[in-house]
Amino acid sequence: MNHDPQDEAADANAPVSQSAENEAPTQHHRRIRSFVTRAGRVPVGQQRAIDELGPRYVVPYAPRLADWDALFGRRAPRVLEIGFGMGATTAEIAATRPGDDFIGVEVHEPGVGALLKLIGEQGLGNIRILQHDAVEVLEHMIAPESLEGVHIYFPDPWHKSRHHKRRLIQPKFVALLVSRMRPGGYIHLATDWQNYAEQMLDVLSAKPALENTADGYAPRPDFRPVTKFERRGLRLGHGVWDLMFRRR
Predict the structure, then answer these.
(1) Widest CA span of the chain, in angstroms?
(2) Which of 14, 129, 155, 164 has an alpha carbon within 20 to 30 A of 5's alpha carbon?
(3) Which tops the pLDDT comparison, 113 or 236?
(4) Hey, is 29 helix, strand or coil?
(5) Considering 11, 101, 133, 156, which one is annotated as catalytic?
(6) Given the DSSP bridges, would you call strands 101-105 and 127-130 parallel, antiparallel or unpaired?
(7) Which residues contact 27 (CB under 8 A, 6 or more apart)?
């Protein structure tokens, strides 16, 4: 899930969907979730997009492999984006890469509505949306070795040390991602928290099936646009770190 790099106070005060599961005594292993729950009002224009375009572009979650060729109406390289926020980056990348198909996963309805609105305004036919937990989507709806790429941009940093265990980029989750990537496929991460960037680099570097495309952090690829929050942070002297790894 994308976060506003300038709004960490809101992140800290948000109700956490996973906290009860993570903190409650249990004999089962702690399950990583790809999101936190936040309430959000859906503006009229976004609700209209959900009502009118949702039936075509939103894929209902089901615990079985999806027929993506049928859902997109073609066979093309597929890229999964986890946590697309309000969808502006997803729409821009999809517009500049019409030969690729993009599966966007986002649990927050205002973001789903915003991306649907952009799809309608720009006539983007190469995006499908899942409003569900990305872990379950990966486990059940994405076939092994089927993804050309994975994008995860500015996930919640969980900046307090005691919350680092809640970060999405953990060894078990990365292993799941790698299993769904085809050989030669890529994973592209970006964060504006140096500590999280260091963790991301350590976790990805530890996977024998992945190879770094750069010596450490990667330059921002041309296809990833600079967000308004990122531009504001850069003006204030904040860093942004990109990582680009390929599956061997």
Answers:
(1) 49
(2) 129
(3) 113
(4) coil
(5) 156
(6) parallel
(7) none
pLDDT band of residue 95 (cuts 50, 70, 90) is very high
Helix (H, G, I), strand (E, B) or coil at 148: strand
Rounded distance between C-alpha atoms, residue 145 and residue 142, angstroms: 9
Strand (E) positions, 18-94?
78-82
> How many alpha carbons lie under 13 Å from residue 152 in its C-beta half-sphere?
27
Lookup: tokens for 67: 């027929």
Helix (H) or strand (E) holding 75: none
Q: Amino acid identity of 148?
A: E
Amino acid, single-letter form, for residue 237: G
133 is catalytic: no
Domains and CATH numbers, the chain: 8-247 (3.40.50.150)
Query: 159-175 in b/e burial notation, b at 16+ Cβ within 10 A?
Result: eeeeeeebbbbbeebbe
pLDDT at 32 > cutoff 60: no
- The pLDDT-based confidence of 14 (bands split at 50, 70, 90) is very low
Measured CA angle at 225 (ends 165, 134), to 5 deg: 35
